[in-house]
Each structure stands twice: as C-alpha cells, then as structure tokens.
Amino acid sequence: MTGTPHLITSTTAALRTLALAAVALFGSLAACAAPADALFSFGPYKHLNTALEAPSLAASTRVKGAPLGLAEGAPDALMPNATGVTLAFASGECGQERWAQLDAAQVAAANVASLHAAGLRYTISTGGEGNVFTCSSDAGMEAFVARYESPSLVGFDFDIEAGQTPEMIGSLLRHIKTAQQRRPHLRMSFTLATFAASDGSQASLNAQGQQVLAAIRAVGLERYFINLMVMDFGAASPAVCVVREGRCDMAASAQQAARNLHQKLGVPLAQIELTPMIGINDVVDNIFMPGDAIKLANFVKTEKLGGLHFWSLDRDTPCPDGKAQVSPTCNGIQGHTALAFARAFAWGLR
After folding, report:
1. What is the per-residue DSSP string for 78-102?
2. For the residues of 162-175, what is the DSSP string, one character each?
3. Which residues, other chains included, contact 87 with Cβ-Cβ below 8 Å and sequence gap of 6+?
4. Other CB atoms within 10 A of residue 205 CB
5. Judging by DSSP bridges, how do beta strands 92-93 and 85-90 pair with one another?
6. pTM here?
C-alpha cells in the first residue's frame, strides 16, 4: 500500500482526535453492522509511520463515560466486540522486525496493552509497499507472534508486494503454518495486489500474488484469507477494471476483482477480503468516494466475503487546504467531513 510519509513519533492533536473518534465509531457501528461470522474482519488500517501509537488510548481522557477521548458527536461507548484496527507495517526478519525507524518492542509497548485495555481488537500487518518481511525459523516466528500477543490480538496480515523470491515466500508460509498450529485462534491474511479485469480474461492476481497463493496451497495452510488491494488499478481499461464514463468504477471494480479471484483461481468468497484506498488513489484518476464505500460494503455483506478494510484511518479526513491531492494524512475529496468513509462502510454493512 502506498502513500508512505516520513516517520513522525508524536500524534498531532488533530490526528489524535480523529483516531480516537474513529476507533469509537468502529467500536459502536462495526459490532452492529459486521456479519455474524466470528472470523469476519472490518476496520481501517492505521499507519504507524504517521504516529507511534494507534492511537494513544492509555493517555486519553474519559468523556461522557466512555473509555476514549471522543470527538464531538462520536458514539458514547466502545462496544467490546468491535472488529478493530490493523497496525501497519512491520518489516525485516521475524523476531527482529522493525517498524520503519522504530524498534518493535517500542511499538508493542506503545500499543498492545492500551488497545487491549480499551477493548479494541487489532491485527498486526507486515510488509507493505517497498518493505519485505521474512521468516527463516519457527523460533523467530514465535518471538514475533509473542511480542504482540494479548487477548485482543485478532491475527496477522502479510502484505506481500515488494518482489520477494519464491524461496522467501515459501519459508514465510512454512513458519506461518507452524504459528497457526500453535495458536489456531489467530487469523492469517495475505494482502496482495490485484487487477479487476472486466474483459472476460478474469485477470486478478499478478505473478507475485500467484506465487503467494501457490505457496499457501503447497504448505497446506487451510484457514487463510486473501485480502485484495482494490486500488490503483491504473488508466481506465477493461483489462484492469470496470470502466464507466471513462474511469475505473472503483466499487464495481473491487467487486469484479473478488469475483475473478473466486472464479479463476478458486478462492472461496468467504476467504476473500477487500481493501480500497479511500479518496484519491496514487493513480489520481482512480477515485474512491463514500458512495463507493456503501456499495462495496453492501456487496461484502450480501456475498458473505471474509472481510473489509480501508487504507487508511489517517486519510479519513478532508485535506485542510481543500485541494484535490494524494496525501498520507487526508483523502483529497471535498465536501465530506472527517470519518465520512468510516461511516459509509459501516452504513453499507448494516
């Protein structure tokens, strides 16, 4: 996933307010809206490169009797069964991983206990754009898993898009399988780039993604999810997306991507997740609007997909200067308030 900023190790007041309001919103809405399957995952990514904590729940004050410092108009309470957030991105060798310039122990200390104390579930994501996460031993994987463990840990997401070799992918999958055997309750997902071809070719995963899927099947991993990055499809063409009025229809393209993966590569819909980039994508003609969020969420619910996420919590606010732009901390869309996408996704899942 893209839009990576330079590291900032303190949360601004505006981002803290946004983040606290968002986790409260997901706490109250997601619990009511999400499908009943206990393995269904719904919520935003939180890029820890924009702030060390996601957010600093331990330091927040109580407002209206809620466990979070809430923004005006936010829900009054955090529901205990909220789906939660995905923290991104750990990279490097398992057990020795880092989060950009941050030490893994520092990240864990800043987030694990406070998220659990707030009753917010979380997923740990690895890799991401330009980053590589590897694992060459069960001991390393055990250290990695244990570092972030709490009763609120949902599982791990492996975002693989930086050109890992088949050997690296195979080794990672073998140790993921061992980790899952040791902790069968943990949810394992693989975030992969995708096409959304509507030209009849059913093109979906690129070569890297197909290597990952082959490795999953080779090691016999049974409980897994493929999380499609339904973003940055490119210039409008039926070879890559569903075209309407000269542009990629982002909601329809995301749906097409899921169908292609299911029909061509045999991944059950219940094991497919979708992650759009809200607002203006890095491919600036690819624009995902709140209306797309409602349509996509409704599709996920109706077709009983395995999950729905979005990139990212930091971008779920308009840009302060009102400009249409690509930014890691705003979505470039005018005429919508902060958390417009979070509310739209939750509305579509209702």
Report:
1. --TT---EEEEEEBEETTS-EETTE
2. S---HHHHHHHHHH
3. 45, 46, 48, 54, 107, 111, 122, 123, 124, 125
4. 22
5. unpaired
6. 0.87
Domain at 13-349, CATH class: alpha beta
* Residue whose token pair is 């509305």: 347
Residue among 90, 86, 117 at smallest CA distance from 105: 90
**For residue 119, what pLDDT is reported?**
85
10 Å Cβ neighbour count for 253? 30
> Using CA atoms, how far apart are residues 239 and 257, in angstroms rounded to an integer?
12
pLDDT of the residue at 161: 93
Nearest to 157 by CA among 64, 59, 85, 237: 85
pLDDT, tens only, 147-206 = 999 999 999 999 999 889 999 999 999 999 999 999 999 999 999 999 999 999 999 999
- CA gyration radius, the chain: 19
First-to-final CA distance of the chain: 27
Question: Which residue type is seen at 156?
Answer: F
Q: Rounded distance, CA 62 to CA 276, Å?
A: 32
- Answer whether the bond into residue 55 is a cis peptide, omega within 30°: yes
Domain map of the chain by residue range?
Answer: 13-349
Tally of helices (H runs) and strands (E runs) in the chain? 8, 16
- Render 179-211 in DSSP notation, one character per residue: HHHH-TT-EEEEEEEB----SSS---B-HHHHH
Using left for φ > 0, alpha for ψ between -120 and 50, and beta otherwise, residue 119 falls in left
Q: Which of 233, 247, 241 is nearest to 277 (CA)?
A: 233
How far is C-alpha 180 from the geometric centre of its chain's CA atoms? 20
Q: In whole angstroms, give the CA distance from residue 221 to residue 231.
A: 27
DSSP code of residue 116: H
Angle between helices 290-302 and 340-349 (to 10 degrees): 30
CA 47, 257, 235: angle at the middle one, nearest 5? Answer: 80
Please give the pLDDT value at position 53.
77
- Please give the Cα distance from 155 to 132 (Å, whole number): 19
